[in-house]
Specification:
Structural class: alpha/beta
Radius of gyration: 22 Å
Oligomer: single chain
Helix content: 40-55%
Number of strands: 12
Strand content: 15-25%
Strand order of the largest sheet: 6-11-10-9-8-7
Length: 285
């Protein structure tokens, strides 16, 4: 996984690029009708229900736009919210509040939706030892925000990107000439380049799982698109030789059944690619 320093840098880049994209050479709507000296106050109003996420990110946005803005937080990230709740108040230059408004809302609406969906999966897994993982099926440019939201919702982050963990999937295996060749080439590459990266290998059937185990040195086996019966067989075959992960179209109706098969992790792209934004507003008070 990436370090905190790397993650913080990603957040800084997201904010800078989003403000560049949205503000350009100036918020001319505000500049045209609001004096530089005008002060204002606004509230973040919840118009939905679920798990709130992105409050700490909003603070960073306000600070980036204008370090003199003050935020009074009433509700923390990860809290359950309902219609009518006020998450925070922000106070400062009216122009600055308006400049930050859309980025704050866009981010918080999506992050809250992801956190809410993640919490549904987490609750469905309660009582098992299985953790829910996100994937790289994220919105380009804001992956750090979406993975942050998964953690706020109680989920666990998978690898951040292609560079912080090795995952040998079906195409890697086929292009390499088979499971054993892919794994052995990977081990040689890591040794040659002096890299310490964990290896995950996708298995499409029980025979490939045995091939992976025979090679050894794998951190986790991805049991992809298996039915329940074969998943249980795979878990029994793997035992404590490495960790296990189920994936492949797993949803709210099936996630508990896969957890009951004994896997350590379940990954779901739906946490980030299939959500409906939470309805939030930033209103002047």
């Amino acid at each position: 996984m990436i370090s905190k320093e790397q993650f913080d840098k990603e957040i800084e880049l997201i904010i800078a690029n989003a403000i560049r994209e949205d503000v350009g050479d100036g918020d001319h709507s505000s500049l045209a009708c609001i004096p530089d000296s005008a002060k204002g106050k606004a509230k973040l109003l919840v118009k939905d229900e679920g798990i709130i996420a992105g409050i700490e990110f909003a603070k960073q946005v306000f600070a980036y736009v204008d370090e003199n803005m003050k935020v009074d937080t009433l509700i923390e990230d990860g809290s359950k919210v309902k219609y009518g709740d006020i998450a925070f108040y922000v106070e400062g230059a009216s122009q600055s509040i308006l400049k930050a408004e859309r980025l704050v809302l866009n981010a918080m609406q999506r992050m809250s939706a992801i956190a809410t969906k993640t919490k549904v999966f987490v609750d469905l897994l309660e009582g098992t030892d299985t953790q829910i993982l996100d994937t790289r099926k994220t919105t380009p440019g804001i992956r750090a925000l979406e993975k942050w939201a998964v953690k706020i919702g109680g989920g666990t982050n998978h690898r951040f990107a292609l560079y912080d963990m090795i995952m040998l999937k079906d195409n890697h295996i086929d292009f390499s000439g088979g499971v054993a060749k892919a794994i052995n080439k990977t081990k040689a590459y890591l040794k040659e380049t002096n890299r310490d990266l964990k290896i995950i290998v996708e298995a499409r059937n029980l025979q490939e799982i045995q091939e992976i185990l025979d090679c050894g040195g794998v951190y986790r086996i991805l049991i992809d698109n298996f039915n329940y019966e074969d998943t249980r067989k795979a878990v029994a075959l793997i035992g404590d030789k490495c960790l296990t992960e189920s994936s492949g179209g797993i949803n709210e109706k099936t996630v508990r059944h896969y957890a009951d098969c004994g896997v350590d992790y379940i990954s779901s792209g739906a946490l980030t690619h299939s959500v409906y934004n939470m309805d939030l507003s930033l209103k002047a008070v």
